[in-house]
Amino acid sequence: MSVKLTITIYSNLYETTPIDTRTVGWPEFLSIFCELGWRKAFRGPAHTKKKDLPLWSPIKLIDGKTRHTTSVEYISALVLDYDGNADMGDIESVWGDWVNAVHTTWNHTAEVPRFRVIIPLLRDVDRREYDRIIRWAMSRSDGLGLKTDPSCKDASRGWYFPAKNPDNPNDYRYIASYEEEARVMDPDEILTSTYEDLKTADEGKKEMIFVDVHGEEHQVQEWAKTVEPGTKVKGFCPYVDDSSPGAAFMRRTKAGALIVCMSERHNHKHHPMKWFFSVDSGISPFREGDDVFYGYPEPDVIGMLDQKMTRDGTPTGVPKNTKRNVYIILKNDTRWKKRVWKDLFRGTLMLDEREYRDTDDTRISLWLDVVYGLIANSTTIVETVLLVGEENGIHPLHDYLNSQIWDQKPRIDDWLIRGLGVEDTELNREMGRKWMVQAVARALTPGCKADTCLILVGPQGARKSSALRELAGAEFFTDTPLDIGSVNAYTQIRRTWIYEVAELDSIRRSHHSATKAFITAQEDTYRPPYGRHSITVKRHVVFCGTTNSQAFLNDPTGSRRFWPVSVGLVDLTWIRESKDQLWAEAAHALHAGEQWWLEEEMSNALREASAEYASEDPWFEMIETWLRGQQSPATTKEIMDKSLGLDTNQMSRLAEMRVGEIMGKLEYIRMRRSVRGTRAYFWVKPTDTVHQLRFNKKLVQTKE
After folding, report:
1. DSSP state, 511?
2. Which residues pair with 72 in a beta bridge?
3. CA distance 265 to 65
């Protein structure tokens, strides 16, 4: 058989640049493209997923162009898909007069048959000829009860290479026609005999064309898919037929005016976009390969959708504009499946590897309209995307920790010593171990009690922050300054696991209580930016402070939540190489039931060690010196007056609290007695029996 086919091949569904274009004879085509010989011919692997199969198309693209209808130079065969309502007898009755090949497609089963028919043409045809021939072929099929996949009208449509589905490998079937009476389909015969019918088809609507600055004619329906909206309209003219005056006028239009009009009524999911387009000079295409602006519906997905019906109950092939249909497409179409997901660690919606943007709603809406003919409002898109993202949720921190397997070599006892050059003491080993276990506990059980903060003390430039970043991993670490108590602070800590409280000024006197309260919280309730309702989020964050100050603890005896260690030589390489095993060991210890707080003995050792990092109030020495010469109990006012020399207007409530804090550090307690009928408070040392004896029996100890 002398017929030749030009075949363009793509590596997969998403590639628009061909990997090969070749001309083959009909027998070679059958052996490669229908008899499963393509794997041997192209050294292809056995594919287990449909989307991984290569594609072919019986077309020749314009040199340098990628897959798109407007890039097709000519077509050498018809390809027709029949899904669900066809059998071999029906196909034979329709196409048995012409040479053809038939094979089942990936999802074919005995219950739901799916066939692909390939009919070679005696000569190559251009896009406009192909459009008329394919409409004739689809009309012929419809007349005999066979429903053709509407996407066959697209000349650039790619077709999966035939393959056996692993789920039903025995269902693959192939047959080719070799009968003597069969003939190769002659395009000229089809075009001549059916011209009048084709010209008035589609309810009398006329196709529209335009002429570009180079005089080349284009169908607006296809050109509309490649042009940015928003530029000026120069004019339009309906196309009737090649010999019409209008067409002649169009051919003479070469002076820069692009003729533009609206595409035909959008009455099917495969019809073009309902947009007006125009340009001032040249064609401005969308990014090539951008599947948002053109593409084909997937047959498997189409079968799941609810369709609009005619009055007599016949499906129209147009999907209903419902949330269910949007949900089905986003969950099952391979171009969107699993692309929208929720990061359960940060609580953010993601698209691929980036955060989901508001413009992505519009992107999805456009894509649904162009590819499936489904027009969804913004509320439908937003709500469905949120649901799909939730169902596709991924927790990257859980995945990381659960994927680490401990090699049984102990490291977390001395990680502070080996990685940060901390002094090797029993307390430092215990604090390093407990803090690691606490971090894993918070990650795997958000909201658990984890109220201690490791503090790295060392000079600026000692690489304290770098060590924490290496230990946590950049995606789980943050050192952005916190505005404690603000909504921004809550959103910041929700997005991180190890939070560095840098240069611990916030633990000094003015914010000491607020900082402790913030660190010890187990959950946060706040209203997110742009949110309509308050939310309560259990914490998965742990804190680690860094400071270059040797005196940052305001109250070392009451700062049990802060675990200070002095940093020496930091070994970033060791931390980087050991971090996975450090977290694996910490997770192993947690699962074995280890607690993450200090026992009483270690707590006492911490209290003594914390004294090295106590901040000293300048009033402390002045009050202590004055008290040495004081023989009788003194009131707070007397202390402020006699030892500090404060005026009455300086004796504020804050000053009283500051004096009281110093007296507590000096181990004084407050006592009260009535003096001339007025209750007065005095500071007394419990061991000072002389002072005790000077008070009468009405003396009563008061709580500080």
Report:
1. G
2. 61
3. 29
Q: Please choose, from the candidates 292, 152, 157, 279, the residue with its C-alpha nearest in 3D space to the C-alpha of residue 218.
A: 279
- State the alpha helices, DSSP H only, in 445-571: 464-472, 487-494, 512-520
Q: Estimate the share of the chain in helix, then strand, then coil, as percent rounded to the nearest 5.
A: 40, 20, 45
Which residues, at least 6 apart from 600, have a Cβ–Cβ distance to it below 8 Å? none
| Residue 597 DSSP class | S
> Cα(487)–Cα(479) distance, rounded to whole angstroms?
17
Q: What is the separation of C-alpha 509 from the centre of its chain, rounded to a whole number of angstroms? A: 42
- Would you give the DSSP letter of residue 111? S
Neighbours of 451 (CB within 10 A): 16
Residue 88 CA to residue 601 CA, distance in Å, equals 85
pLDDT of 293 above 80: no
281, 213 contact by CB (below 8 A): yes
Q: What is the spatial distance between Cα 56 and Cα 44, in angstroms, rounded to a whole number?
A: 14
SS (H, E, C) 539-565: CCCEEEEEECCCCCECCHHHCCCEEEE
| 230 against 625, higher pLDDT | 625
485 is written with which tokens?
């108590």
304 and 372 Cβ atoms separated by less than 8 Å: no
What's the rounded Cα separation, in Å, for the pair 663 and 528? 44
Of 83, 51, 58, 85, the C-alpha closest to 3 is 58
pTM over 0.85? The answer is no
Q: Are strands 562-566 and 669-675 parallel, antiparallel or unpaired?
A: unpaired
Instruction: Pull the structure tokens for residue 181.
Output: 């009476």
The rounded radius of gyration (Å) of the Cα atoms in the chain is 39
What gap in Å lies between CA 6 and CA 22, rounded to an integer? 6
pLDDT at 424: 95
What pLDDT does residue 698 have? 41
Determine the Cα angle at 120 with ends 119 and 122, to 5°. 135
Please, is 484 exposed, middle or buried when counting C-beta atoms within 10 Å of its C-beta (0-12, 13-18, 19+)?
Answer: middle
For the chain, give the mean pLDDT: 77
What's the CA gap between 461 and 306, in Å, rounded? 64
Instruction: Report, as an integer, the average pLDDT of 262-280.
Output: 32
Residue 697 has pLDDT above 50, yes or no: no
What digits encode the pLDDT tens for the residues 641-652? 888 888 888 888
Closest to 157 in 3D by CA, of 50, 63, 79, 65:
79
pLDDT tops 80 at residue 323: yes
Mean pLDDT of 353-362: 90
Domains of the chain with bracketed CATH: 4-199 (no CATH), 204-295 (no CATH), 299-394 (no CATH), 401-613 (3.40.50), 618-701 (1.10.10)
How does pLDDT run across 576-594, given as a tens digit for each residue? 999 999 999 999 999 999 9
User: Quick one: pLDDT at residue 559?
Assistant: 66
The answer to whether the beta carbons of residues 479 and 463 sit under 8 Å apart is: no
Q: Secondary structure of 244-265 in the HEC alphabet? A: CHHHHHHHHCCCCCCCCCCCCC
- Tokens 């006012």 locate to 637
Residue-wise pLDDT for 45-91, tens only, equals 444 566 677 888 999 999 888 888 888 999 999 999 887 767 777 88
How far apart are the C-alpha atoms of 113 and 123, rounded to whole Å? 31
With a pLDDT cut of 90, the percent of the chain lying above it is 29
